[in-house]
Every structure is written in C-alpha cells, then in structure tokens.
Design brief:
- This protein has about 400 residues and is mainly α.
- It has a domain of about 260 residues.
- The chain is about 65% helix and about 5% strand.
- It contains 18 helices and 4 strands.
- The strands form 2 sheets. A two-stranded antiparallel ribbon has the order 1-2.
- The two termini are about 40 Å apart.
- The C terminus is likely disordered.
C-alpha cells in the first residue's frame, strides 16, 4: 500500500489530531449511539429533500415537483430517507433522561423552567437568522419582478422545517406528562382518527390531530427507552417486525400510499398530516434503530467516526434549517445558464434521477457556505452539550407501597 504524499500527510494528520481531541473531551459515559442515530436522522431528512424535491422552471416561474409522482415505483427510496420518527424517538429519550437527571441531581438551577428554557434555546436559536434572510430575500424577489407563485414556492420550501420545530417544542414542553405514557395510547388516537377520516367519511381537518398524536408515538418510545424497557433485542425486533407488517398491510390492503413522503398532487399524503401507515412505518424504523445501538457504539469508538457524528450534532439545527435554502440557492443561481437537467427540468425519468445525483455535491457545497455563515448561532450551545455527561440508561425503581421513580445508572 502506498503511503500518502507529503502534501497530503499534513492535512490527514491534522484531521486525525482534531478527531482525537474531540474523542478525548467527550465524557466516557456518553452514549454515542444516541448521537449517531440523531446524525443519521438529520442526514436522512436532508438527503430526502434533495432527492425528491424539484423546482421546475416554467418560463420565469419556479414550481415544486417530485419524481415520486411520475415514477411511483421509486417509492421505496422514501422508506430510506423518511427518518423523522428516529429523530423524535431520540428526542424523547434525551429529553426524559435529561429532565430526570436535573430532578435527581438536585441542582440549584435544576428547575423545570430552566431545563425547558435551555432546551428550547438550543432548538430555536438558529431560527431568527433564517426568518430574517428569507424576509429580505422575498422582498428582493418581489421588487425584482419575480412572480408570486415563485416566491410562495421558495418561501414554503425554505420555512417548511419550522413545523417540525414547533411540534418538537410542544412535545418537549410536555415531557413531564409524557415520561410514563405508553406509546399505545397515542397510537390508538392515530388509529381512530384515520378510521373516522377514511373509513367513516369524517372531515379531513381531523387528520391534523395526528400532527401531535403521530409524532408522540416515537417520542414516547424514546421515553420507554429511558425507562429501560427497550434494552433487550426482543423489544427492537418486536417494533421492527410489527411495524413493518402493519405498514405492509395498510399499504397493500388499506389503500394508503406507498410513499412515506408527500407527493404534490396526490389525493392522500402519509406525512401531511401523518397517517397510521406513517406511524407504523416509524415504529419499524425505531425498532431497527434500537437493534443497531450496540453496533453504533462500537463504531463510535473510532475517533474519526465519532468526530464526524459530533460535527453533525453540533450543527444539527443549522443543517436542518438551511439545507432547503442551499438547494434553492443553487437552483436559482444556475437558472441564468438555462434549464439544466436534474435541476430545472421535469422529474419524469431516470435521466433526471441520474442528473440529480450529480447535483448533490453542489448542494452540499452550498450548504457548507450556509453553515459557515450561520452555524455560530448554534455552535456554542452544541459544544457545551457535547461536554455534558450523558448517562446511557435510566431504569425504573419501585418500592412496595411507593410509586415507581426514575433512577439514573451509569454504564461502565
């Protein structure tokens, strides 16, 4: 095997040194599998939007489109990139664990209000910059003669990640009430909402109840993980197989769409609002994530792997909030060169898919520019979170005649 050239050795050595430093400052008790799952969930969402969201140039107007409409056989791609359930599960696990830690350690600043303010600050600190940039950009586009359709399309895509933050914030605030909630209860709500909507011809607005109930299911699965109820592989296998079988039945026999992301023009979306099929699919994903924990822990022992995951986690919200902007900036900038395949053309064939794959590195480069400009709003809180002790497990302890409590234990 050839050794790296002298000019390449120094950068590689610097990268390894930086990775070793990140590895050294991370508390040994931190469960790195949690961070790995969060990073995979965020990157899945980013890749999903970049692959299935297209901006088609219609004269001087940009309209949103999706390759899943003309090519429904690509629906399995959505199964790999719809990873929000894993993010909500990890969020529920981390929130219930950190709240338990605050309460059991009896810190002076360890009140619910202080805990909630800290978590919401980390969540929303990068948001004002996005709102400011798009307020200015929208005004500039309208003054420059852009059509209302184009501006509406761009703003809707740019700000669509905010719905997730609002739902996540509501569930975070309700964590004390949700810490012991069995996931079957919100699952039953989703089931009955869909039964009324689709089986009994109920009002379509009823589906919006599932925006909270649907994502509450994986969030409470995360809380069950914190309680130590999902440590055995059997729990992961049960969620994975049960969720997969239920989803297959709902799609094959219940008439639910096969795509797990929204498709423009489709009569029913599994995601907007969430349907029972999306929730059972999310349970299958959560089960698979639980089964991968030990393997991820072993992988995260490698400094380079852990440094990459830590970098994504330090900028998770920045990446999440700006990835659509990066794609749209690339699309708008390149429009001056004409209708480019995979960027401005109708996504109706494999040639579009092949061309779009070639654009992904360009989107990533544009996202890197956005990250360099705006990650400072998030990075301070992220570094503090990385250095905080991270207990990997909280178990349920009960005494005769007393209510069970959550007690934290450390892994060796």
């Amino acid at each position: 095997m050839r050794r790296p050239l002298p000019g390449v050795r120094r950068p590689l050595a610097s990268v390894r040194q930086a990775a070793a430093h990140v590895d050294a400052i991370t508390p040994p008790q931190r469960d790195r599998a949690v961070d790995a799952l969060r990073a995979l969930a965020i990157l899945g969402v980013v890749l999903g939007h970049w692959l299935v969201t297209a901006l088609v140039a219609d004269g001087d107007t940009l309209r949103a489109a999706s390759p899943l409409g003309p090519m429904p056989w690509l629906a399995p791609v959505s199964w790999m990139i719809q990873t929000l359930a894993v993010f909500f599960m990890v969020g529920g696990h981390v929130a219930t664990r950190s709240l338990t830690s605050v309460r059991t350690q009896g810190k002076t600043q360890g009140t619910y209000g202080g805990w909630l303010r800290a978590r919401l600050a980390r969540l929303f600190r990068p948001v004002p910059s996005v709102l400011l940039v798009w307020t200015v950009a929208s005004a500039a586009l309208l003054l420059g003669g852009a059509s209302l359709v184009t501006v509406h399309t761009l703003v809707k895509l740019a700000l669509s990640p905010l719905w997730f933050l609002l739902v996540f914030a509501v569930l975070t605030a309700a964590t004390p009430l949700l810490a012991r909630l069995n996931p079957l209860w919100p699952l039953a709500v989703v089931l009955h909402v869909d039964l009324v909507r689709f089986g009994l011809g109920g009002p379509s607005w009823l589906g919006w109840v599932n925006v909270i109930a649907g994502w509450l299911v994986p969030y409470t699965v995360g809380a069950a993980w914190t309680r130590g109820e999902l440590e055995r592989p059997r729990a992961g296998w049960t969620l994975f197989t049960g969720g997969a079988v239920a989803t297959a039945v709902l799609v094959g026999c219940g008439g639910y769409p096969a795509s797990m992301v929204g498709v423009p023009g489709a009569a029913v979306s599994n995601l907007n609002p969430p349907t029972l099929a999306a929730v059972t699919f999310g349970l299958a994903q959560c089960g698979l994530a639980l089964l991968l924990r030990d393997r991820l822990r072993r992988t995260m022992r490698r400094p380079l792997s852990w440094a990459a995951v830590a970098l994504v986690n330090l900028s998770a919200m920045t990446v999440f909030l700006w990835h659509q902007t990066a794609m749209m900036a690339t699309t708008a900038t390149a429009l001056s060169a004409g209708r480019l395949p995979g960027l401005h053309t109708v996504p109706d064939g494999l040639d579009w898919v092949a061309a779009r794959l070639l654009w992904l590195p360009v989107f990533a480069l544009a996202l890197g520019v956005c990250w360099a400009a705006f990650h400072g709003f998030e990075s301070g809180a992220g570094r503090r979170a990385l250095r905080e002790p991270d207990r990997s497990r909280v178990v349920r302890v009960g005494h005769r005649g007393k209510a069970p409590e959550l007690r934290e234990t450390r892994r060796a």
